[in-house]
Design a protein that fits this description.
The chain is α+β, with helices and mostly antiparallel strands and 323 residues long. It contains six helices and 16 strands. The strands form three sheets. Strands 1, 2, 3, 4, 5, 13, 14, 15 and 16 form a nine-stranded antiparallel β-sheet that branches. It has a five-stranded antiparallel β-sheet with strand order 11-10-9-8-12, with helices on one face. A two-stranded parallel ribbon has the order 6-7. Helix 3 crosses helix 6 and helix 4 packs antiparallel against helix 6.
């Protein structure tokens, strides 16, 4: 399956700012599962854009705008080919996976995906929630356990965009009973890690096909979980929509949690308050299109952030909470 993705991020400032330095993680990954066939990134005001590969093998673009400005737009376009992500067929996963996980989990490559991280802490509330699934007793195979966790998050917690913030820790959704994909992903990662299953955060996009009944919105980026299963590798789980990831998810960045994959992040100098809007369009095709159409942001539905930020001399800019 081929997908074209248009992603607009728009910052507005209450007064002119300077020395705006930004990092952007919007370029889809290229690996055995998917291939980013083309990608472009533009800014207004225009800036010279550089890029590097971070410690999680994500492509990071960065730029700075020194001159005064009251508005910043970042527009990305991508063409991606997505294949089927591996996952066990019914009955394929067995209890024998647990000893293999214990062996492979000791490797340095899995270390970060088994430990607490910035947004995923092993708090008493997290441990209590994990205990409901008998996560450490290994009564069922790892794939079945992960499916049970995903389904429980989907059925027990409401999808509500204003229930949490972009910087809410994983256990906040346990207190509120509601959240968005970012919260559900952090929660599932925490339970998986407590069970001894390496789990990581995936930032990207979900193609919302007609009749799919997805809870997540189609006008913002998305987040889900990848868990390591010996014999299959990284298997994707979408607790927001109760899906095993197959071909509708487009992967952009991976990390321990949201802190590693923020689509935009930076600082600026000034006393302005800022507001943020985001728009996303994902289109699907069976064959690659002959050209990418120009984006038309004025026709897009814009997803609002929680409101204006506090004025500071140097303000940390975070991407809108992933929906």
């Amino acid at each position: 399956m081929y997908y074209t993705i248009h992603h607009l991020t728009q910052y507005r400032y209450s007064e002119p700012i300077t020395e705006n330095v930004m990092e952007v993680r919007k370029q889809p990954l290229s690996d055995a599962i998917q291939t980013c066939l083309s990608f472009s990134l533009t800014t207004l005001p225009q800036a010279e854009i550089h890029d590097y590969i971070d410690g999680w093998q994500n492509r990071v673009h960065h730029f700075s705008i020194v001159r005064p400005h009251k508005r910043l737009e970042i527009v990305s376009q991508a063409l991606v080919q997505v294949g089927e992500q591996p996952h066990p067929a019914p009955g394929e996963a067995t209890l024998a996976l647990w000893p293999a996980l214990q062996t492979e989990g000791r490797s340095l490559a899995m270390w970060d995906y088994l430990r607490p991280s910035h947004y995923v802490q092993f708090t008493p509330a997290m441990r209590t929630f994990a205990a409901e699934f008998h996560a450490t007793t290994h009564e069922v195979d790892p794939f079945t356990l992960l499916s049970h966790i995903q389904e429980a998050i989907y059925t027990r917690f409401e999808y509500e965009q204003d229930a949490t913030r972009f910087d809410s820790p994983a256990e906040h959704v346990l207190e509120t009973g509601a959240g968005v994909c970012q919260d559900f992903t952090h929660l599932m990662i925490g339970v998986a890690r407590l069970a001894g299953i390496p789990a990581r955060y995936v930032s990207g996009y979900l193609f919302h096909r007609e009749g799919a009944h997805d809870r997540s919105t189609d006008d913002a980026s998305h987040a889900w979980v990848e868990a390591w299963l010996p014999g299959w590798g990284w298997v994707g789980f979408d607790p927001t929509n109760n899906l095993v990831v197959k071909r509708r998810h487009i992967r952009v960045a991976i990390g321990r949690d949201y802190a590693d994959v923020t689509p935009t992040r930076g600082v600026f100098t000034g006393q302005a308050t800022s507001s943020l809007k985001v728009a996303v369009k994902v289109l699907a095709a069976e064959a690659p299109p002959t050209h990418l159409p120009a984006p038309t942001p004025s026709t897009w539905a814009m997803a609002e952030d929680e409101g204006e930020s506090d004025a500071t001399a140097v303000l940390l800019q975070q991407q809108q909470q992933q929906q």
